[in-house]
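Subject: for your reference before the review

Hello V.,

The reviewers asked for a structural picture of the protein, and I figured it would be easier to keep everything in one thread rather than splitting it across files. Below is the amino acid sequence we used in the manuscript, unchanged from the supplementary table.
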Amino acid sequence: ELLTPGPLRDALDGSYSLQDDLVLTDDYALVVNRMPIHLAGRSHGAVVTLRDRTELAALLRELDGERGLTDSLRAQQHEFANRMHTVAGLLELGETQEAMRFLTEVQGTAAQFDNTLRTHIAAPQIVGLILGKAAEANEQGVQLTISPDTWLSEAPDRLQLLTTVLGNLVDNAMDALRGRTAPRVIEVRVVEDDGLLEITVSDNGPGVPPELVPRIFLDGYSTKATTGGRVHGLGLALVHRSVTRFGGSVSVSSGDGGTGAVVTVKIPKGPAPVGDRPLLPGATR
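And here is what came back from the structure prediction:
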């Protein structure tokens, strides 16, 4: 009676058994087990254990964030090395004009994206995040673009939450595009007005079947295979829980022509709830 509907309440009221399921509350990440007890064919209740994994989960999320940053830096370094090898090869062949043309094209493309980004987004933290994600996407053969109506001020409200949400959504979009044929495109749209932050990330991947939409924000739900014993599926659950705690909303729809996925997050601006603190601080993925 004290709990809102969800996995934790279901475990306690006997709706179903749980075994090492990770459940998020407003303040904790709990590993929940529920084992029914039967003696002589009769039910004698159940044993429920709740193990606090909040700090460990937070450390894992921070590690994921550092890995994401490392991957972005590695992608940029790899891209730079490829360009230098191309220039070196052209110079060795004596094709100085072709080398100059290649450098001009590279400089123009990179400068154009950077200028477009800085024209629409003034917050350095978000510019850095998107530049890193763009380099990582480029390495995977994915084109990351910015919507023409994107606008974000230099110091927007909920900057940390915005970083978490945007990083998660772009990562999920790149995961959805893995193994798909070209062209593979992700579009990012961030619009700030007087009372609202709206983030939209769309891709031209397989999309989300309508019957799965209610489930994708559940704790631990994921279409990705478990790797290294780690649980996937917390990213969107963290996004949904963090956004709704600030009175926001998350919705999923299909793209133009019924293909791809469009995830839209709306976060109202204004004072943070009294006594509120970020769930699993440092989470970025």
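For the response letter, the relevant points are probably these. Strands lie at 21-24, 29-39, 42-52, 143-146, 185-192, 196-203, 249-254, 261-268. Residues 27 and 279 are 6 Å apart (CA to CA).

Happy to draft the paragraph if you're swamped.

O.
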